[in-house]
Amino acid sequence: MQKTIFFCFTALALLACKTETKKEPIVVNYPETAKVDTIDTYFGTEVQDPFRWLEDDRSPETEAWVKKQNETTFGYLENIPYRNDLKKRLEKLWNYEKLSAPFKEGDYTYFYKNNGLQNQYVVYRKKGDAEAEVFLDPNTFSEDGTTSLAGLEFTKDGSLAAYLISEGGSDWRKAIVMNAETKEIVEDTLIDIKFSSISWKGNDGFYYSSYDKPKGSELSAKTDQHKVYYHKLGTPQSQDELIYGGIPTEKHRYVGASVTEDEKYLVISASISTSGNKLFIRDLEDPNGLLIPVVDDTESDNYIIENVGSKLYIVTNRNAPNQKIVTVDAKNPSTENWEDFIPETENVLSPNMGGGYFFTEYMVDAISKVFQYDYEGNLVREVQLPGVGSASGFGGKKDEKEFYFSFTNYNTPSSSYKYNVDTGEYEQYWKPEIDFNPNDYKSKQVFYASKDGTKIPMIITHKKGIELNGKNPTILYGYGGFNVSLTPSFSIVNAVWMEQGGVYAVPNLRGGGEYGKKWHNAGIKTKKQNVFDDFIAAAEYLIDNQYTSKEYLAIRGGSNGGLLVGATMTQRPDLMQVALPAVGVMDMLRYHTFTAGAGWAYDYGTSEESEEMFNYLKGYSPVHNVKEGTAYPATLVTTGDHDDRVVPAHSFKFAAELQEKQAGDNPTLIRIETNAGHGAGTPVSKTIEQYADIFGFTLFNMGFEELPNQSVLKEFKE
Fold first, then answer.
1. What is d(CA 280, CA 255) in angstroms, rounded to the nearest whole number?
2. Can you give the residue ranges of the Peptidase S9A N-terminal domain (predicted)?
């Protein structure tokens, strides 16, 4: 089936379109998407899945479909008059030196640095006052910059390093071991590592996690039995010792291993979903030591943050939805022996360790507050942060008396500070030199009522002095799931949006972690509609208060946030002008059959667990709720052909449904990044191109014939 949309491209294009003065249109024909007779039956209900064939990411037919869709989409985008101007502005603003906070390993101080437009950050190091040198440059891993550094771990003495690489954005990793002093490769290469870090045991070897290679496509086939291995240096990977996960009673979807800083204990965490984990320890000083259960169920989230000898310090939300720290002796570590160390408060706790102190970050309405405690649980001080926003870091080795933290908010680029643990004093270590003046912008936190009356916080950021006349181009961004908290942080792409007069609004929806486990649980399974209602109410608040109007509102989100956009636009297509779902979970009846998707069941439930859950999921699943003859907003679906977390079939099927059933002239396009995954490690060049397309598409479909802020345009053209 072919449908046609039109858009104008002359100097007065959009004015002409709006006044219905006919100009020569560009005709865009959607590629025909074949339909197959595929039907699933759930609890006696038949569900058609005509685009099932798009799930086969290896087929020539899917490859041809992707190529045709991209030709159509880029044919449209190329005719947006200011698309290239946005790209140039993004490049100019992006082109400043960026540094990470330093960290010490052995005799060297390491840091990450990007000169400006490098596709990947480079790892540098220096010894004492000597000049810094390149230690590891991921830009040399591949010609197109799509192979990225995905992890770097040193031995305790800093003499050896193991680093992980990701190819084409895939979650599958390879590990390479090098002599940190000489930078010579010691071992090349361990393969098939996934959802794993590296944790060294002395200088002899390290622990890592992997799945058995799936049958069929490694980008989409199901992976659900995670295993921990120990790799001894100098031996082939085929001889690696299986530590946990190899028998039916140890079957879990996510298993991780770490070694405590004093190298006394091996810690194993095992989960069946993205929430809740079992916890085990093994005494590495005992050659016959067994794994001892600390927590033997998955009813809570738990991890060991520190130990002093056999005294364990555990962060947990067990009977404490906002988290607390408890202590217990490793000889008898079960939960009935736990004692509160830093009790739960009304705010969510996110602790860290450094310099022989505990640093507790609390979220107060999504804003950071940080306190310092000693090993007796005594409050040393509140850290007076540089402003209102998000702090991160506050961690280091136990014997280091200085470490670094970062601070940012929506209109302040992230800066690094050196902190003295004994005095509590800090000084700015690094501040970016960026062509952006934070003083020209303002952020305001508001609270609005959702459909059921629940108060939801939202931070709205924009240029000072804008008129609240309902005509400001606005992006409403959300996530609302998996206990993830959206806290204020600066983004170059959002800066470009705001300097064009755009409003950027971020609500803290239920399903997230901003108010602890109760807030998370208020947006899962049969309460998932709360999340969509919260997002819809945010849009209505922005419209009612004249920040924007339907004609100037875009909604955006990625991954679980892509689901949020897909559900919102199918439930309330009248509410926004533009929808921007990125790498979204769009088929809620089949998501659990791909890669590690079954692990998301804590948040979503599955279509197979009960008739009630099936009906609930079918009731909001974006793929199953696109209705014939409905006028949907202008939609640009984005995904990557190597996304093996939320497989691109979700986006493919959603785009196919929209293209078949859309009424009206709003375009429904899909932009498929090739040789790219879920987002992590994406080269800077690809990111800039993608956002130039997203912002160009958004402004064009809001009716802008030229960029709203031409003064910025003139400045960077000059």
1. 11
2. 31-429
- Which domain does 489 fall in, by range? 39-91+436-715
- Any catalytic annotation for residue 226? no
**Both 572 and 693 in a single domain?**
yes
DSSP, collapsed to helix, strand or coil, labels residue 653 as helix
Among 559, 607, 621, 651, which one carries the catalytic annotation? 559
For residue 564, which phi and psi values (nearest 5 degrees)? -55, -45
Do 108 and 81 reside in the same domain of the chain?
A: no
Question: Do 54 and 188 have their domain in common?
Answer: no
Report the alpha-carbon distance of residue 29 to residue 31 in Å, rounded: 6
This prediction has a pTM of: 0.88
Identify the burial level of 629 via C-beta atoms within 10 angstroms of its C-beta, where 0-12 means exposed, 13-18 middle and 19 or more buried. exposed
Active-site hit among 231, 592, 650, 678: 678
Residues 315-350 pLDDT 10s:
999 999 999 999 999 999 999 999 999 999 999 999
Domain boundary among 211, 242, 259: 259
Do 562 and 690 lie in one domain? The reply is yes
Measured over the CA atoms of residue 197, residue 199, residue 205 and residue 210, the dihedral's sign is negative
Q: Are 165 and 148 in contact (CB under 8 A)?
A: yes
The structural domain count of the chain equals 2
Please write the tens of the pLDDT for every residue from 656-678.
999 999 998 899 999 998 765 55
Reply yes or no on whether 300 is catalytic: no
Assess contact for 226 and 211: CB atoms under 8 A.
yes
With tokens 């009630």, the residue in question is 612
Residue type (1 letter), 574:
D
Q: How confident is residue 7, by pLDDT bands cut at 50, 70 and 90?
A: very low
Q: Which of 457, 437, 439, 438 is nearest to 449 (CA)?
A: 457
Q: What sign does the dihedral 597-598-603-609 (CA atoms) show? A: positive
Read off the CATH number of the domain in which 566 is found.
3.40.50.1820
Domain endpoint, select from 259, 283, 302: 259
